[in-house]
Backbone:
């Protein structure tokens, strides 16, 4: 069965520093997708970044990058130059299949990030 | 931009009452998902639709839960009868088949007393 593991319940980071949020996954599928979502205190779920299992380059979106290590089954999120507005819960998720949105997402338990001034 | 409207945003009801949560996508999509978020279980997929047809409802907890999508612009999630353990935030999300993103609505916070 597929599983997403986020081992860091909470993290602190100083403003303007970089932070890495860990995510490991377990699947027997060759084709899959990995996602990160941000959930601020207001409650909405905000899509941040996506990595396909066959993508050779690590995904980047502005200050967000995904450190994809396929052999280790890890998909860590790196936030560079942290800002106070980055304080939120961050969820890693996985989907069967490659490309498209044909299948359900399985979410990790989340990491609560606090950015300190 | 994709968007989702959910109503009500907050619902407080007594145990045994029927609850209907509503989702209205405001842009084109192929897929619609209902998720539930609780402290104990995190985010769970309840059911999803493709072109208004239910594809996977294995996450629906029990027969008290039902979901419909009568057209591409509207979906409901009904709980009858409601129980205190149904208290959660319920999210509706949409996606286009060609996209890798699922766009979430703001959620409905349900409290069953």
Residues:
């Amino acid at each position: 069965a597929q599983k997403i593991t986020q081992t860091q319940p909470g993290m602190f980071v100083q403003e303007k520093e970089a932070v890495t949020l860990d995510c490991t996954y377990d699947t027997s599928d060759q084709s899959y997708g990995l996602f990160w979502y941000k959930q601020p205190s207001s409650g909405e779920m905000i899509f941040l970044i996506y990595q396909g299992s066959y993508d050779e380059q690590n995904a980047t979106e502005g200050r967000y990058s995904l450190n994809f290590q396929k052999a280790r089954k890890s998909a860590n999120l790196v936030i560079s130059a942290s800002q106070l507005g980055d304080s939120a819960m961050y969820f890693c998720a996985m989907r069967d299949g490659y490309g498209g949105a044909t299948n359900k997402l399985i979410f990790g338990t989340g990491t609560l990030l606090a950015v300190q001034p | 931009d994709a968007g989702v409207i959910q109503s009500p945003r907050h619902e407080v009801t007594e145990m045994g009452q029927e609850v209907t949560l509503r989702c209205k996508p405001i842009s084109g999509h192929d897929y619609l998902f209902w998720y539930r978020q609780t402290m104990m279980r995190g985010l769970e997929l309840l059911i999803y639709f493709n072109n208004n047809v239910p594809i996977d409802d294995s996450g629906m907890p029990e027969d008290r839960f039902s979901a419909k999508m009568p057209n591409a612009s509207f979906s409901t999630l009904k709980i009858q009868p409601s129980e205190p353990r149904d208290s959660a935030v319920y999210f509706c999300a949409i996606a286009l088949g060609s996209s890798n993103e699922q766009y979430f609505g703001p959620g409905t916070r349900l409290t069953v007393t």
